[in-house]
UniProtKB/TrEMBL annotation:
This is Anaerobic glycerol-3-phosphate dehydrogenase subunit B. InterPro entries: FAD-dep_OxRdtase_2_FAD-bd, FAD-oxidoreductase_2, FAD/NAD-bd_sf, G3P_DH_GlpB_su. It comes from Halococcus saccharolyticus DSM 5350. Pfam families: FAD_binding_2. GO terms for molecular function: glycerol-3-phosphate dehydrogenase (quinone) activity. GO terms for cellular component: glycerol-3-phosphate dehydrogenase (FAD) complex.
Length: 424
């Protein structure tokens, strides 16, 4: 039996969840279909709007810089109002778990590599660590967590000219942890405050961690840890560490798996549940059915059987090259779900430049859309009247270089969800 909805969203990342949530707020019956877990768990948990111009200039006030973006950029297509509306939706979802809504200016957040990322919204757990803060900082790494070299990160931050003196130290994480332990294992130990053996006897993991750090404080005014300070009980863990160390404690965003990203995913999942958005996960979309100018259904693979999902409106939010929402082979570049046209040079040598960190054309590959985010075919016509695209699958922006990925997902997700919801 076919499953019918008003709006069906393909893709479970930030753009897909934002689209689904806004469409539901417009009164539509919404279903979100995703094959894999949200890409948020691989992201830093920071939410950018625009960190750098296409020319590589650092952006202090992102909304002032939006007008300078080239024609066809996703922000140019949806307009400033959608950028603000997308951020407003985000702020409603996350509540006081994120900071940054008090200003249009970018905050500068240190990362685990010792770089500084300009970002519009940042987790409350990182707030005491902003690079603009002049208070002396101590970064703490763990011997069994090789992904974060605290002394090296501190050196990089000093070289970058941040106003605060920053030191780094590496200590053993309390307890018996393997050298390849995942960040979730450290977080679980702190969540549960597991009993661990120390030189002076048995103690809870939180108190044992502060005891390992205390000899290195030496008058420091704040302490940063890799973002492993608990998962379910992260606020309580951080509060306990602050009480024992008697200084503010902050988390430094890490690479995947990212606990701040997982926490953000949970906040959006709860919002989707509250909005009665139905979610079908773990099954790929393998085909679709169209009747002339409109899509009628998508087919999802369920243990080798094709299950049809019918809807009035569809939103494509499967991500870009990294998430395989855009794919390529020797024959060209494709969008694999609806076979939307992806403009690209026929000569593969024109997809990139010689410099490793140069301005690579492939970074901007994606689906072309009209002002209503409907994908366009090779002749500039609309592919399907009831299909819209949002997020990383869109062309025209180098998300990584611009530091604009989250903002584009929110703005275009909001705009696509609103348009689809209004259309039913």
């Amino acid at each position: 039996m076919a499953i019918e909805d008003d709006v069906l969203v393909v893709g479970g990342g930030l753009a897909g969840m934002t689209s689904a949530l806004q469409a539901a707020r417009e009164g539509a019956r919404v279903r979100l279909v995703s094959h894999k877990k949200s890409t948020l768990r691989h992201a830093s948990g920071l939410v950018d709007v625009l960190g750098y111009t296409p020319d590589g200039e650092l952006v202090a006030e992102p909304f002032d810089a939006l007008a300078t973006l080239p024609a066809g950029h996703p922000y140019e297509l949806v307009g400033v109002d959608s950028v603000r509306d997308g951020l407003a939706l985000f702020d409603e979802v996350v509540g006081d778990a994120y900071y940054g809504d008090h200003t249009d200016a970018n905050a500068l957040v240190p990362t685990h590599g010792g770089t500084v990322k300009p970002t519009a919204r940042y987790p409350e757990s990182t707030a005491a660590g902003l690079a603009s803060d002049p208070r002396e900082a101590l970064l703490v790494g763990f011997e069994t967590l090789t992904a974060f070299d605290a002394p090296l990160a501190a050196d990089h931050l000093d070289a970058a000219g941040v106003p605060a003196a920053t030191r780094g130290v590496t200590v053993p994480f309390p307890g018996d942890f393997r050298a390849d332990s995942r960040v979730t294992r450290f977080a679980r130990a702190l969540d549960r405050d597991e009993a661990v053996e120390t030189a002076t006897g048995t103690a809870g993991a939180r108190r044992a961690l502060t005891a390992a750090v205390e000899p290195h404080l030496d008058g420091t005014e704040r302490v940063g840890f890799p973002a492993v300070l608990g998962d379910d009980e992260s606020s309580e863990v951080r509060t306990t560490l602050e009480r024992h160390l008697d200084v503010p404690v902050f988390e430094v965003p890490m690479g995947p798996p990212s606990l701040p990203g997982i926490r953000l995913e949970r906040l959006f999942a709860a919002a989707l549940d509250d909005a009665d958005v139905r979610r079908t996960t773990g099954n790929p979309v393998v085909d679709f059915e169209a009747d002339g100018e409109r899509i009628q259904a998508v087919y999802v693979d369920r243990n080798g059987q094709r299950a049809p999902f019918h809807a009035e409106e569809f939103i494509l939010a499967t991500g870009g090259l990294v998430g395989k929402g855009i794919d390529s082979d020797r024959e060209g570049v494709i969008e694999p779900v609806f076979d939307c046209h992806v403009p690209h040079p026929d000569d593969r040598y024109e997809w990139f430049v010689d410099e490793a960190f140069g301005d690579h054309p492939f970074a901007r590959f994606g689906v072309d859309v009209d002002g209503e985010l409907r994908p366009l075919d090779a002749d500039g016509g609309i592919e399907y009247e009831n299909l819209r695209a949002a997020g990383g699958v869109l062309g025209g922006a180098d998300f990584a270089a611009e530091k604009s990925g989250s903002g584009i997902s929110l703005a275009t997700g909001y705009a696509a969800g609103r348009a689809a919801g209004e259309a039913v």
